Amino acid sequence: MAAKKRVVIRNHSAEANLFARRTFITFIAIIVLSLVLFSNIYNLQVSSYEKYQTRSNSNRIKLLPVAPNRGLIYDRNGVLLADNTPVYSLEVIPEQVNDIKKRLSEVSQLLDISQEKQDKLLQAMKSKRRFKPIELYSRLSEQQVALFSVNQHKFPGFFIDARLKRYYPFAELTTHSLGYVARINGRDSLALEQQGLAENYAATRNIGKRGLERYYQDILHGTIGHQEVEINNQGRIIRTLDFTPPIPGKDLTLTLDIELQMIAKRALSGKRGAIVAIDPRDGGVLAMYSNPSFDGNLFVHGISSKKYKKLLAPQSNKPLLNRTLQGYPPASTIKPLLAITGLDAGVITPETEIYDPGFYQLPGIETKRRDWKKWGHGKVNLTKSLEQSCNVFYYDLAYKLGITRISQMMRKFGFGEYTGIDLHEESRAIMPSIAWKRARYNKPWYTGETLSVGIGQSYWSVTPLQLSQALSILVNKGEIKVPHLLKASTEVVTNDKDTSTGQTIITEYVVDEKQPIVLKDQHSWDLVLDGLHNTVQNFGATGYAAFKGSKYDAAGKTGSAQTANIEQGEEYDASKVKESKRDNAMFIAFAPFEKPEIVIAVAIENVAEGGGGANAGPVARQIMDQYFGDREIVSKDPRKHPHHSSDFQQNIKNSAGNP
Amino acid sequence: MRNTGHDQHQQRTLWQRLHIDLPLLMGLLALLTLGLFVVYSAGGQESAVLIRHAKRVGLALFVMFIVAQIPPLSYRRWAVPVFIIGLMLLSAVLLFGHIGKGAQRWLDLGFTKFQPSEIMKLVMPIMIAWYVSQYDLPIKISKIIIAFILVLIPTLLIARQPDLGTSLLIASSGIFVIFLAGASWKLIGACVGLASAFAPVLWMFLMKPYQKQRVLTFLNPEQDPLGSGYHIIQSKIAIGSGGINGKGWLQGTQSQLEFLPERHTDFIFAVFSEEFGLIGVGLLLTVYLAIVMRGLWIAVNAQHAFTKLLAGSLTLTFFVYIFVNIGMVSGLLPVVGVPLPLISYGGTSMVTLMAGFGMLMAVSTHRRFNI
After folding, report:
1. What is the span of the domain harbouring residue B192?
2. Which tens digits make up the pLDDT trace of B246-291?
3. Statement: A331-483+514-657 belongs to CATH 3.40.710.10
4. Total domain count for chain B?
5. A427 annotated active-site
6. In angstroms, what separates the C-alpha of B134 from chain A's closest C-alpha?
7. To the nearest whole angstrom, how far is the Cα of B258 from the nearest Cα of chain A?
8. B312 to A53: CB separation less than 8 angstroms, yes or no
9. Do residue B299 and residue A3 have CB atoms under 8 angstroms apart?
10. How big is the A-B interface in CB pairs under 8 Å?
11. Where are the beta strands (DSSP E) in A1-79?
């Protein structure tokens, strides 16, 4: 009742006014707050639009790197030396498999997959996204691929993934020059990062580790491509938005001739040694083989430690070593170069004649240095010194020249220096000098050592590559063309819009030349070259046997390097000496004499019997025979080389009568 | 007054006889229709989600219609008993409630689960308006204290669940009644001062760790972009990347690619903003404001203090819904669980809201008989 009374006396209009005022205040507040909301949204959607637009896109758009295909490598005749072949792996997307354990054991039974691999997959499933493929088996055999393909419908979620892997069809034949690619390791990644290349290698798995694969890594690799995809919050790919194809690496054509490599391998089979053949006209390496070799393919997939240990085992004779780039005592093969040095220094003339009693003695010193011919060569001039490889002549020459003059000239011929070939594994070997010995051993130079240098012994070591390079300089009469393996690189340039048609651009290798060697008398070159010609063409000369009956006009020089000191008064007999202390056989040769197309250096370690002429000569001969094939190259001046022409004519007759 | 009332009686339209306020209904239908589209987009374009939402919209409209038929002054009779039942249910929730998402909000009745706090959303303004309207306005301080205690009890019970968003809405619905009833400005000032003083106490003793984390995240979401800051960061990216024109319906990458969490419930505004841009946001706010304006117009024109206070409180609470949801989704306010009214997918809150609008319609159309 009281309440009702109060209602009666209530001032309704005053209350309505109060309420209206309060409502009006809330109305203003609502308008203000709405404006606050709207301005905040305006700020987000208009003022900060670009920022949020970018963040929205970076949420959903991912760039997936696509690895470029590695450039292929061909020999000079277009024979494929390094290929990319598909490798098949079995992958599983766990999300698409309904009973993973059952299916896994079924597929494993079908393809004979080990329990270990299955367990590994089940383990990997725990840490990976369910819609991302996991590798179950890498490198399926063709049979496995076929077997799975037929049964694929039984295994939803399982699929075969193909990837390109490097393959060297000629295996150990090309490994030392091509090198190989292998998995990018931590050190490689660091190096790439420092060079600012990490981004370009984002999708790349392998990198050139040795040889040309390493030297031309940048050219062979190409440029990374990108797939722009839209993903959801789980990282699952919804669709592809854009695709920038990768630019494949350039194909390389080498100066190598795989057929010469084959001959080289056959010629060196069972021996330890190396062959380098160069075209002196442009410095292109025609053949480069080191025996024993190894199969670079082993490293592409990651070599097993068992196989690696086998390569390192002593009985394998260091196959990893590239002997073409390794120092050997040059022995008599450098005599022609010393002759050039002597002529240029005026120490000897073409007419200089010495008497060789079979030994050489320094004035006032008892020690006798023997010639290889016990009873001596008698009267020896320059030409004969080369033909007969007379040591006494060169002891005398070296003594007269002194180590400094020898060393200076030999450096010009490239000894003790990098040749600059397109391989990183090159050794400088050793060109000894007074300063070198002081730096290396902190000892003075002895005159006796100069004599040893005169016959290419002592500390002196040269790589077969350096030796062939020096011979190349000699036949070019002082011109220096830096040896190289690359002949040309090929790239296919495609239009951005139309990838089907491409323009092939071939870039020829530009031959690098060094400052030539200029002699006081250019005639000296001919003199020494004639001597080398005679060494091979004159009956009874040291290189005669090696090129007897060849259809082309060859020249060369033998060498036999001691690998162990022989005591005074002792005789060297290969059959009585430990294998590792036997002589090395060396041989250098070039042909044709008048316009040389090929120079060869051969080194064979610890030969059983005979010197360079008997052991290394035939190796060079086989390479040349292959190189010239049926070509007949006769000297234009039969008077100058009477022996050769008659011998050659005789050969023609023989072969004509006996086809 | 009586004459005009009589004239109105003469001119009663079909809508008035159905107790439907047409302008209000138009606004509500506009929102509900829009909600269907946005829920379809935000719910992964699944028709099942859309159908469930549509059913609930139908139910909500039906509830609104039924509530509108009840003469508003008769609510007063039910205020006290329902309020007491509500308090009992809230206590029951705390004792035997069903736990979902780390909070006890649901009461399992066997055949259905429901949130007693939803009932309180409606009962609170009725209760306070009933209490306050018994006395002369402006309201006296002694009544304010009692009214305040009435507000505080259910608010604290709900806050204990914990459900900060709902307790906030319920508290404000009561406080709006007190404000509209003419609480003195001095007192309001004092309360604000007291509240600020109370804030540290709230922080130290009453807030749960996850609530504190929400506030910290609100202050600096970028400190943990993949953890607690993820929601708000992704939401702002969604809104911001919508730009002026939006990405288009079903084209929002943030929502369709599922970067945005709680897409079809509390964060549906971000989906809407991403797909419809600033233009869409402007239109949505306009519709909301139109509804709020109509609500206030109904309140001002109501002829009894109780209906005035009730209609005013319901309308203002509706605006609080809007402001808190949009504010939290766009990074103005900390994240509290408040849906976007009449758009968000989600059961009871829509039915409760529409029941509230049923009351507004009742206030708007029953006036003649209740003086």
Report:
1. 16-369
2. 999 999 888 888 888 888 888 999 999 999 999 999 999 999 999 9
3. yes
4. 1
5. no
6. 7
7. 6
8. no
9. no
10. 138
11. 61-66, 73-74
